[in-house]
Amino acid sequence: MTVTDTEPGPDVAALRRPARVRLAWLLALVAILVLIMLASVAFGSRVVGLDDITAAFGGADETLDQAAVVKRIPRTVLAALVGAALALSGTVMQGVTRNPLADPGILGVNMGAMLAIAVGMVTVGLYTATAYIWVAIAGAAVSTLFVYAVGSLGRGGATPLKIALAGAATSAALASTVTAVVLPRGDIAENFQSWQVGGVGGAGWAGIGQVLPFLIAGLVVCLLCARALNSLALGDELAAGLGERVVLVRAVAALGSVVLCGAATAVAGPIAFVGLIVPHLCRLLVGLDHRWLLPFATLAGAALLTAADVIGRVVNRPDEIEAGIITALIGAPFFIYIVRRQKVREL
């Protein structure tokens, strides 16, 4: 998966950070994530005090506030897991393609997973979370290959803009196909439409337990590819000269990314832009070294989606706005900014 235009931007030396600075940012990010997760269990249609939060963590659910905390804990955990998976998936996609616009939502990977689930529900009656995950991963993989193949056509190969345009067109086509598949089936249309917005409401420990092995597997694969992604950033020829098996590295890293994206989409719906925003922000903090960037993106993605879920619960109480809508409101302007800043004008 090679592109002809590497990601332009600041000089590499300017983005290097001493280890102590990176460690300080890492500790700060962990603290921020903990605070956001505490806010997630405290705020919602009801605001819960610290005493009830502490009691609920101890297993108490005697009052309404304690019961609310018990219900919010798995939701918070799922938001953190899905945000971490999408951010890590996007970071790896950008590293594999050397494309600053790569993101599971923009490239149509989410929509591929969603269409696969829709077809599975209509044709064979999928109903278990594990079946959703396997089908979503397969759909995400097929969509990824299709978008890259279309974006590679023509003069210049797979430029960033061509990949983004191919992904946008594929997403639109897949979204229309999903509607055509689901709409005639009134028995599943309502539940499916609420899921396709993207959110973590209704999370439970059983669903988390089913998706967790897939997320762990994708995480391990992606983190093991960190050093190889640094080599790919230097260009295919130089990476090969350093002993990297370029095609194998790209295939393995892409597989890890697709597994993360497919599993996250299966349990939370197609949440966009997390994989686009987080990698760019993390590069400003820790530089371009994927050995640092991937863990940072994982933590930052968890914090971002959890914060989006909290915002969606408090801005329109007692009703909720799904986290996928909040991330879209944040991510769409950021996407425009990245396009303008990177000047990816080649067609």
TrEMBL record:
Key words of the record: Cell membrane, Membrane, Transmembrane, Transmembrane helix, Transport
Primary site of residence: membrane
GO molecular function, one term: transmembrane transporter activity
GO biological process, one term: siderophore-iron import into cell
InterPro entries: ABC_BtuC-like, ABC_transptr_permease_BtuC
Entry membrane topology: Multi-pass membrane protein
Membrane-spanning parts: 23-43, 73-93, 105-126, 132-151, 163-183, 203-226, 247-272, 292-311, 323-340
GO cellular component terms, A-Z: plasma membrane
Membership in a protein family: Belongs to the binding-protein-dependent transport system permease family. FecCD subfamily.
Descriptive protein name: Iron complex transport system permease protein
Protein species of origin: Actinoplanes philippinensis
